[in-house]
Amino acid sequence: MTTGIASKRARRFLSQNGKCFHCNKPMWERRIENMKSASVRLGINLGTHGWNKKMRDLRCTAEHLVPLAQGGSSRFENIVAAHLSCNSERGIRPVEDYKSELQSRSQPTGGG
Q1: H helical segments located in 43-94
Q2: Can you say how many angstroms the Cα of residue 24 is from the centroid of all Cα atoms in its chain?
Q3: Distance from CA of residue 43 to its chain's centroid?
Q4: Burial call 32-53: b when 16+ CB within 10 Å, e when fewer
Protein backbone atom coordinates (compact mmCIF):
# COMPACT_ATOMS: atom_id res chain seq x y z
CA MET A 1 0.00 0.00 0.00
CA THR A 2 1.34 3.39 -0.98
CA THR A 3 0.86 6.18 1.52
CA GLY A 4 1.06 9.79 0.41
CA ILE A 5 3.67 12.19 1.69
CA ALA A 6 1.04 14.26 3.56
CA SER A 7 -0.03 11.21 5.54
CA LYS A 8 3.59 10.34 6.36
CA ARG A 9 4.19 13.93 7.46
CA ALA A 10 1.16 13.84 9.78
CA ARG A 11 2.24 10.49 11.25
CA ARG A 12 5.71 11.85 11.96
CA PHE A 13 4.24 15.02 13.47
CA LEU A 14 2.32 12.86 15.95
CA SER A 15 5.23 10.53 16.71
CA GLN A 16 7.48 13.56 17.35
CA ASN A 17 4.86 15.06 19.70
CA GLY A 18 4.38 18.06 17.42
CA LYS A 19 8.02 19.13 17.65
CA CYS A 20 10.42 19.90 14.81
CA PHE A 21 12.99 17.15 14.18
CA HIS A 22 15.78 19.73 13.88
CA CYS A 23 15.16 22.38 16.55
CA ASN A 24 12.70 20.49 18.80
CA LYS A 25 10.35 23.49 18.96
CA PRO A 26 6.56 23.25 18.47
CA MET A 27 5.03 23.34 15.01
CA TRP A 28 1.57 22.84 13.54
CA GLU A 29 0.18 20.32 11.08
CA ARG A 30 -2.73 21.43 8.92
CA ARG A 31 -4.12 17.88 8.64
CA ILE A 32 -4.49 17.75 12.44
CA GLU A 33 -5.49 21.25 13.52
CA ASN A 34 -6.69 24.40 11.84
CA MET A 35 -4.61 27.56 11.75
CA LYS A 36 -6.71 29.36 14.36
CA SER A 37 -6.36 26.67 17.04
CA ALA A 38 -2.68 26.22 16.16
CA SER A 39 -2.06 29.96 16.54
CA VAL A 40 -3.57 29.90 20.03
CA ARG A 41 -1.44 26.90 21.03
CA LEU A 42 1.69 28.54 19.58
CA GLY A 43 0.94 31.94 21.14
CA ILE A 44 0.61 33.82 17.84
CA ASN A 45 -2.08 36.49 17.59
CA LEU A 46 -3.52 36.28 14.08
CA GLY A 47 -4.29 39.99 14.13
CA THR A 48 -0.72 41.17 14.64
CA HIS A 49 1.78 42.27 12.01
CA GLY A 50 3.70 39.36 10.50
CA TRP A 51 1.43 36.62 11.85
CA ASN A 52 1.13 34.91 8.45
CA LYS A 53 4.92 34.55 8.04
CA LYS A 54 5.26 33.19 11.59
CA MET A 55 2.52 30.61 10.98
CA ARG A 56 4.01 29.65 7.60
CA ASP A 57 7.48 29.19 9.09
CA LEU A 58 6.10 27.02 11.92
CA ARG A 59 4.07 24.82 9.57
CA CYS A 60 5.01 21.15 9.55
CA THR A 61 6.68 19.85 6.39
CA ALA A 62 7.94 16.43 5.36
CA GLU A 63 11.72 16.54 5.61
CA HIS A 64 13.72 13.90 3.75
CA LEU A 65 16.66 12.78 5.90
CA VAL A 66 18.51 11.81 2.73
CA PRO A 67 17.37 14.45 0.21
CA LEU A 68 15.69 13.28 -2.98
CA ALA A 69 18.40 15.16 -4.90
CA GLN A 70 20.96 12.86 -3.29
CA GLY A 71 19.13 9.62 -4.02
CA GLY A 72 16.84 9.56 -0.99
CA SER A 73 13.33 8.20 -1.18
CA SER A 74 9.91 9.19 0.12
CA ARG A 75 9.66 6.00 2.16
CA PHE A 76 8.43 6.50 5.71
CA GLU A 77 11.86 5.65 7.15
CA ASN A 78 13.39 8.62 5.30
CA ILE A 79 10.73 11.16 6.37
CA VAL A 80 10.66 13.29 9.52
CA ALA A 81 8.52 16.29 10.43
CA ALA A 82 10.22 19.69 10.44
CA HIS A 83 9.30 23.37 10.39
CA LEU A 84 9.11 24.84 6.92
CA SER A 85 11.84 27.27 7.97
CA CYS A 86 14.19 24.52 9.25
CA ASN A 87 13.53 22.33 6.21
CA SER A 88 14.27 25.20 3.82
CA GLU A 89 17.33 26.39 5.69
CA ARG A 90 18.87 22.92 5.88
CA GLY A 91 18.63 22.40 2.14
CA ILE A 92 20.67 19.32 1.19
CA ARG A 93 23.24 19.58 3.98
CA PRO A 94 23.69 16.46 6.10
CA VAL A 95 21.26 16.34 9.05
CA GLU A 96 24.09 16.13 11.59
CA ASP A 97 25.77 19.26 10.20
CA TYR A 98 22.55 21.27 10.30
CA LYS A 99 21.64 20.12 13.82
CA SER A 100 25.16 21.03 15.03
CA GLU A 101 24.79 24.46 13.47
CA LEU A 102 21.44 25.00 15.22
CA GLN A 103 22.91 23.86 18.51
CA SER A 104 25.90 26.19 18.22
CA ARG A 105 23.55 29.12 17.49
CA SER A 106 21.64 28.45 20.70
CA GLN A 107 24.79 28.30 22.85
CA PRO A 108 25.56 31.48 24.74
CA THR A 109 28.67 33.17 23.48
CA GLY A 110 31.57 33.85 25.79
CA GLY A 111 32.47 37.30 26.76
CA GLY A 112 31.89 39.54 29.40
Answers
A1: 51-57, 84-90
A2: 9
A3: 17
A4: eeebeebbeebebeeeeeeeee
* C-alpha–C-alpha distance, residues 18 and 27, integer Å: 6
pLDDT at position 2, please? 52
pLDDT digits (tens, 9 = 90+) for 20-44: 999 999 999 999 999 999 999 999 9
Give the per-residue pLDDT at 111.
57
Domains and CATH numbers, the chain: 5-105 (1.10.30)
Cβ atoms of 10 and 59 closer than 8 Å: no
Give the dihedral sign, CA 76/33/14/1.
negative
Cβ pair 81, 27 in contact under 8 A = yes
pTM: 0.87
